Each structure stands twice: as C-alpha cells, then as structure tokens.
Amino acid sequence: MIQSSSISDIENTTNSQQAQIQFVKWFRKVAPYVHAFKDKTFIIAFGGELIEDNCLNILVQDLSLLSALGIRLVLVYDAIPQANKQLKLKNNEKILSYDLEPINHNILECIKEASGKVRLDIESSFSQGLPNTPMSNAKIRIISGNFVIAKPKGIIDGIDYLYAGNIRKIDVDAIKSEIEKHSTIALLPAIGFSPTGESFVLKIEELATKAATSLKAEKLIFLTSSKNIEINSNLSGIEIACNDVDSIIKSNCLDKEMTNLLYKAYKSVNNGVERAHIVPYYLDGSILLEVFTHYGIGAMVVANNLDYMRQAKIEDIGSIIKLIEPLEKEGILIKRSRNILERDIDKFTVLEHDMMIYGCAALYEFPEEKMAEIACLTVIPELQNKGEGENLFKHVEKKAKLNGIEQIFVLTTRTSHWFLKRGFHQADISSLPLEKQKQYNKLRNSLIFIKNI
Questions:
Q1: Which residues form the N-acetyltransferase domain (predicted)?
Q2: Which CATH code for domain 308-452?
Q3: Mean of the pLDDT values across residues 336-349?
Q4: Cα–Cα dist 90/211, whole Å
Q5: Which of 93, 111, 142, 384 gives a 20 to 30 Å CA spacing to 117?
C-alpha cells in the first residue's frame, strides 16, 4: 500500500515538473518579441493618477525589466492630481482638469512643485534593489532636463492662456544620447521651457505624441485609469485601424478619457508612430502582457491591419512545423519532415500577424494537367471559424488561377463539408494528375475533392 505522504510527494514532483515545462514554453514564446524590441524606443505616458492609485512600484518593476531587455524607454508624465492638492493647500479654489484652460502664475508654481515631487517619487522607485525582489540587481539611471522647448499658446478666441504652452521642439539628439546608454531612462514632465527662461504647461498626450514621432519610437503606450477596456470586451486585446477610429468614437461607448486617448493614438500613428497602445495601468503586469503576448490586453491603434499574407521564407519553417505538427499527430495531415518543408518552402503561403505566423497553406502545381493541389491549409485553433482560413484559401486559389491553373483539388480525411461549401465536388483517384495518382496513399483513404476555377 502506498502511503499518503508518498502520493503527496509524487503530486508535488509532477506539479513542479509541469510548472517548469510551462515556464520554458512561456519563455521561448516571448523570445521573438525580445529579439524584435531590443534597441527599440518605447514612449510610456501616464498621468499623476497612477501614482495616487499606488500603481507606481509595480509599473517601475515592469519598466526595469523592459530596460534590462534592451528596450530604450522615455517616460512622459504629468502631475495634475498632485497639483490640485497643492492648490487646495494654498486655498486656491481652482481645480485643474485635462481640458484646455488658462494657467496663471500661481497655478504654474503648484504644477512645477507637484511635478518635482512626482519626479522624486519616480527616481526613488527606480532606486529600489532589495534582495529577492523584482528590482534586485537592477541599476537604472534616470535622466531628466530641459529636453522640451515650448512656447505660449497665446490668445485664442479672446482668452489669454498665459502659461499654457505648445511644443516648439524636442531635443532629440540629447535624449537619444542618454537612452542609448545601457539602463538609462529619460523622464519628460509635461512642462516645457522657452528660450526666455519661462516654463509652460503642456498636455501630456501632445507631449507623448510629439516625443514618439520625433524619436521615431517603435511604440507609444498610454497608461490609463479608464475602465472602458476592461468593461468593453470589444476593446480588449484588439488592434484598431486608423480608418475605424472615427466610427468607434462616434459609437459613444467610450468615456471622455478613453475618447481623448484614442484620438491622440490615432494622431500619433498618422504622424509616423508604428503602433500606439492604450493600456489600463491598474491591472498588474499590464505593460508586460501588452508587449509580450500576441493579443495583449489593451487597445492598439495601427495605420493598417497587421495581418499580412506572404510567401513563406526558410526562416518560417519552425513556425510552420508548430502549426501542422498537432494535425499530423491526429492523422489529419500527412507527416512532412523538415527536409521536405525546406524543399517545398516556396510552395507555402503564410499568414503573419505582428511577427507571429498563425496560418499556412501550400500550393503544389501540375502544369501539364493545369491542376494544383492545396495542402497544409490550417490556422491556429484560436482563429478557426473566424474567416482566416477562408482568406488564406482564397489567396491560394487566386494565386493558382493567375498561374494558369484551371482546377484545384484537395485530399482530406476530416474536412469534406468545408470544401463542399466552397464549390468543390467529390471525385475519384482517376481525376488526379498522373504523378499524384502514383503518390496516393490508399491506407489513408483520403477523400478527393476538385473545383474548377
């Protein structure tokens, strides 16, 4: 009889092994992102609310990890909530908002004081390094300065906006020279300085967008307290093409903050930023999940949809094997060795999304009979029944037609109905090209379907 303690030991060992396997799989899965983002610049923008909500330490831990992976970081922040506290202490009834409003001298001094305090909070958080914590052995250097040249907004519709400013220029060379040093992060408060020595208050979204476009950043990430992404599942883990932004805003499903950020993200992408993200900061690890998982947890604005159908390359073989191997084990697809895939790689088309291969199909042509076989048509399970396989099939079908093919055929053991719905009809082995007839595996007894194109 096995004692209960022995059973417990076995279960613990099994759980430990499973945890190790999961860790290794996860680590390998994020490797493409680590390679892709090394030496790239990310602009991270957040308001003072993040600090008031006690989310700074968690954010700093995750940003330190990004820095350690070779990502160049520029942090853009404001201190509106902290400035409002200063105003209240000084018995000033003015409450600052994120709308355009005049900034007088007293308000400016409160904003400068609050911005200085926030900067110290950020610097002290990055200085942590206790053993057995995420910041252990982290040596992050924070640099700030007069990187932003500003000018007054002036008088608009008869209103003098005093110390509210516009960005005149960002000292790109100075910022680059700092962030290109290992583990150095640049800090940009939402305050700019004029050649006359005056300070002007800037809008954080405008500063972040200008910094991203000027520095040619890979990503612009707005951290938000808005619950829209969490509540509205249609906004979580999606990409939004610029063409769709207007219709989303007009749907009136967004709060004011989310609407503003979505518009700024759209504007930054139109001005050359490749991708702009809106991520809820109150979710633990939100930046890591957004950057290192395929779908992320926020909303991402891009110029065009990132789905990309292209000719396969030799570098894609590993990804193709991952796609078709489970189907080969189930007997749905015939086994193809790496050597065969390397030989036939020019026959494959792949679906790529944000550096990840998630679908493939092969086209084997028989020019003499003006026929072609479509093989290895598959997409990842998460995207099945969502039209991706259909798009891939149509692309390969069109390619065959352009190459003078008049009939396409498939051999299948499981998906006959899918092909029947797309205009195929069942045929027998004698309908196949002679070369394919010789290769036909009678033990698999695959059904044959043919379509005229």
A1: 307-453
A2: 3.40.630.30
A3: 94
A4: 33
A5: 93
